[in-house]
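Could you show me just one protein sequence together with its fold in token form as a worked example?
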Amino acid sequence: MFSHVMLGSNDIERSKKFYDALFATLGGNPAITDDKGRLIYMHNGGLFLVTKPIDGETACHANGGTIGFAAENPEQADAWHAAGIEAGGTAIEDPPGVREGAGMKLYLAYLRDPDGNKICAMHRMG
């Protein structure tokens, strides 16, 4: 359904430090930086990019939006969350843990990145 996800950032170096730390916990590589200064992460068939806004305006986060990253297990989601806090993110919502509803059991860990974007590590439990 999706080809890629791209977020805006006001500080690409800060974002690189943050997202490199997160992707390392998921088994991904550090960002590739293209000739336009965009960060490109490729992992498990997904493409995630971070860029300064092309219109020259300030990057801002989407109210109500969340970008989710797949975790293989709860321990990986916890490592992702801890790495994000260590790299300048902010813990939000409930602490990482199991959430149940609508017949689903999920392990979720939420953060705001340094630019205020809401992100989540999610593991679907059996």
User: Anything to note?
Assistant: The CA atoms of residues 98 and 107 lie 4 Å apart. The helical segments are 12-25, 74-86. The mean pLDDT is 95.
